[in-house]
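Late entry, evening session. Most of the bench is empty. Finally got around to the prediction I had been postponing all week. Sequence below, unchanged from the version circulated by S.P.
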Amino acid sequence: MSHSKQDHSEAYELGPEAEDDSESEAFLIHASQQDLPRFSRDRVVLKHSFSEFAHSPYGAIFFISVTMFVMLSVYFYVPCTLHLYMVCLCFAFPLVLAVDLARVVHRRQLPSTLAARMRVLGCLLATSYTLFCTLAMVLGIPYDNGRAPPPRIPQTNYNPNNETFYIASNLYNSEAIFPRYSQALLQFIEDVGPSNVFVSIYENDSKDRTPSMLHELDAKLDAIGTQHKIQSVSKRDHFRTLERIRRLAYLRNQAMDPLYLEMAQGLHNRAFSKVIFLNDIILNADAIHTLLNTADGVFDQACGIDYYSIGLYDTWVTRDVNVRRPRPLWPYFQRNQDQKAVARGEKVLVDACWNGISAFDARWFHVASNTQSNNSDSEQPVITHLPRNSTLDDGEFPVKLPLRFRTGKLCRASECQLSSLDMHRLAHPLRPLIYVNPRVIVAYDQRDYFMFHSLVFWRLNYPWHVVWEDWIATRIFGFISEIGRKSDPCRKTYLKMYSPAPPS
């Protein structure tokens, strides 16, 4: 009897330290045969298995991988399956493969179990793919999964029709984003020609270095010969007590006023072609070029996609063709054809959008537009068919050209959504061409910009797109994320003012 107890003690002490799998297996068999209650035997076996795993190289890899996942989740603000995928592919799988191969070399035989062999094979395939993607990145092999922002646009496509652009922007405490913002702005101006751009920036009440940075931008625009109007003002306390949408509409109109006043005759006596409105966003010049090339430049309004930590940010303004709000999580829209368009990086026809960056056919902001006919050409902006000086009053605030940002009379809606709504009201029964271009990606934070503009689209992450985004998250469990889609309290009020959805 004492001999039996001595054997058990020795087996338990050797278990966590055992270098040979047979010793560990012998312990498990021995423990399962002890004269103990079943629950106690299971606890002994489980405790031994966990202790053995924790003291093994695999345990160290596991705990370091968990730590890396947590660090990535903190850095990018929220946990994401992409972080887990990248930790496994770039760290865990290669190290597990290295440990397995080292054991094979040491023992001079392949793993004895099918599960161990499958582990080696799986890690070998994953590591090979990681090495291939790394090599492709080092060699600069081009890669485009169809959704990523397109590569640098050829210089010949910058401004082939010699168009003129009015760029408007509102800034407030924008010091953090200003270097990238101003760099993109100056690069775009250089691309299309300094004499083809007018810049209007209206900043108010910033507590950081935004005013002084704007002063530096003012000097740079002077140096390259670009006409501009940059205003930094302090508003009275009474202004801050106004309702939020009323304040925002006023500030946006201040940025647009030069177009209505001193630039009413256009730039060098040429009418503006496009109006581009920028929020305080991080972007690059290619984002603006790509936006302007939406539908080959034929649109009434085109928007990008602005991101924050969990996905699409501007769900309060954007409405699909059924006047329904998108959700923050991929693939954002509810209609199947819209989801497929986003997955292919193609434009999505919507009823309203803004999304941090928005471009308009400038004729919406002229006093009047040309009158052609009331027969809509679906391939031309609706603005070409509006009656001259048309005015509409349908219970909401009257609307006429040029468009102005405003508050709602019948319902509290964003001033940006109301600008799209007013296009529908003026165009009825025609439908304005308003698109979201998913390949135009901007953000309000450096980390979010890196995540959604670059990291998500690495060649390494293509399997994650296919397996997780397209199948698991969308087709299998998409109904769960639909729970987070917010309703629109103004939908019933404004539904009759939006143009009918086109046939599916």
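Two things to note before I forget:
The chain has a mean pLDDT of 88.
The chain has three domains: 2-139, 164-272, 288-351+372-504.
Will write this up properly tomorrow.
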